[in-house]
Design brief:
single chain, 409 residues, alpha/beta, 4-stranded parallel β-sheet, 51% helix
Length: 409
């Protein structure tokens, strides 16, 4: 694709990156069949190819508009288009640039600004745990739309004591909402790691991965969170005190594995972020080489399951095959279902900012899953788990919880 960037975009870091990405696109249209919003809306402006054209026009000097911003907002950033693209177009990086450029030039309506500000504040706030617990107490009397957003609490259970201190140690992500919404996921992860001789802990000074801020028009605030995590993790990793950062929320994992790209123009952090990358692993990546040891600790098998591979696992990180192979090795009876590559509509805060599209995609996903009659739906991301559970009576959980239950009952 030929480009002629506007003067204000030329000779900038983002302009050079955007131009390189744009020139890879050959207009082939393979992305259309992979795009969830195009499948729902049938409007090419809500497809990767259509959004690429709009971003090209913007960077070539076209006046930005709220209409263009809406088309970019509707993108789930699922990266499914990248999986099928024969030209290697890194669409996700381009849409990050396009959203930032428009955010700097177009003021959103006050309702949208308020919603995004509240979400950024709330999901990183110390009051979120108390508010969420209150919502769980009040759940039976709340409107159905709110009930679907609040997951019924699952007990975290007992964690290993100091007597379980192991020579092998890893760090876990102290993320923003998972400990409040489903503390059972972290607890299950810690117990499973402990069972195979690995201790898990949190690093002082670490926190949210930055995804919430980044996707809600606060990219620089997100980079501050990235820098804080690099500062907290890298010394412990490079000293040999811990061997890896283990992430059990694929949305967070996808963001953390992109730190080197997001901080590449920061002279103080570009090289440090790059050094961090080899240490970051999804829990499935970490446990895959120890599958036999994990299986030996399991006293039962998880049974008939449908595995929903989050977009951040299969398209961002390319770990669907690794995870499915591990689950099969551990005795999961996985059921194939149609459109398993398609997004469920969760996508971080997307289910709040784009509720109609999100629910359409959720119901489409659940319809395909339910045709296999699973006893349990398992996934690898807190957002997908809560989103899917809001639309079905079939239990939805993280697969590590099923492994923990098979080990400990």
């Amino acid at each position: 694709m030929q480009t002629q960037l506007a003067d204000w975009a030329q000779d900038t870091d983002f302009g050079r990156e955007a131009e390189e990405i744009l020139r890879r696109c050959t207009h082939c249209g393979f992305c259309l069949s992979a795009c969830p919003t195009y499948q729902i809306l049938g409007d090419e402006l809500d497809s990767p190819r259509g959004r690429i054209y709009q971003m090209k026009q913007l960077l070539e000097g076209a006046e930005p508009s709220y209409v263009t911003q809406q088309h970019l907002d509707r993108c789930l950033t699922c990266h499914a288009c990248e999986t099928v693209c024969p030209s290697g177009v890194t669409y996700g990086a381009l849409v990050d640039i396009g959203r930032q450029v428009i955010a700097e030039r177009v003021q959103r309506p006050w309702r949208e600004r308020t919603l995004r500000s509240v979400l950024r504040w709330l999901m990183g706030s110390r009051v979120f745990p108390a508010l969420y617990r209150a919502g769980q107490w009040l759940r039976p009397v709340l409107p159905r739309t709110l009930q679907a957003k609040i997951t019924v609490a699952r007990p975290a259970g007992t964690l290993p004591g100091e007597q379980s201190r192991h020579a092998r140690q890893v760090l876990m992500l102290s993320n923003c909402v998972q400990p409040s919404m489903l503390p059972s996921i972290d607890a299950a992860t810690i117990r499973v790691l402990d069972a195979v001789g690995v201790g898990a802990r949190y690093a002082s000074g670490s926190g949210c991965c930055g995804a919430v801020n980044f996707h809600l028009d606060a990219q620089e605030a997100a980079r501050d969170q990235m820098r804080a995590n690099v500062d907290a993790w890298l010394p412990l990793l490079e000293s040999g005190e811990v061997e890896a950062v283990i992430v059990n929320a694929s949305g967070c994992g996808g963001m953390i594995k992109d730190y080197a790209r997001h901080l590449r123009h920061d002279p103080a952090y570009a090289e440090r972020a790059q050094r961090l990358m080899p240490y970051v692993q999804d829990i499935a990546e970490f446990l895959a080489p120890m599958a036999d040891a994990v299986r030996a600790k399991m006293r039962s098998t998880p049974g008939r399951c449908a595995f929903h591979a989050p977009c951040t696992l299969q398209h961002w990180q390319g770990l669907r095959v690794t995870t499915e192979r591990l689950l099969q090795d551990l005795g999961f009876d996985l059921q194939d279902f149609a459109e398993s590559q398609m997004c469920c509509g969760s996508a971080g805060t997307y289910s709040i900012t784009q509720p109609e599209l999100s629910l359409s995609l959720r119901d489409r996903k659940l319809k395909a899953i339910q045709e296999t009659l699973p006893d349990t739906i398992v996934s690898a991301n807190i957002g997908c788990i809560c989103h899917l559970q809001g639309g079905t009576g079939t239990p939805v959980r993280h697969w590590i919880e099923s492994v923990d239950e098979a080990m400990h009952g």
